[in-house]
Amino acid sequence: MIIIFLVFLYLVYTIFILFIAPFHLLFTQLLPILHDNYFSCLFIFFFLDFISLMTSAIYLKLARSSYITFSRNGLNDVILCSRVCF
Length: 86
What we know:
mainly alpha, elongated, transmembrane, transmembrane helix, membrane
């Protein structure tokens, strides 16, 4: 059950990162040129980067704790979890 949750979390994180890169370009390069409202673009950019940073920190924390949990069950579970989590 934990492995399924980690795989789901990894997929959500990967999709989030794939969609954060175009927003990063949009809010840092295009919108300040098109609009005079530069500070709101910076605010949105920093907010999105903060969400990305917190998501990656939570994901790494869950991956590390599950790695420690599965390492008690034997070598096969460690290999399986290391392939799924990392």
